Amino acid sequence: MATHTLDALGLKCPQPILKAAVKAKELQPGDMLEIIADCHSFPNDIKAWCEKTGKTLLVCADEGEGKFKAQIQF
Question: What confidence category does residue 64 fall into, taking pLDDT thresholds of 50, 70 and 90?
Answer without folding.
Answer: very high
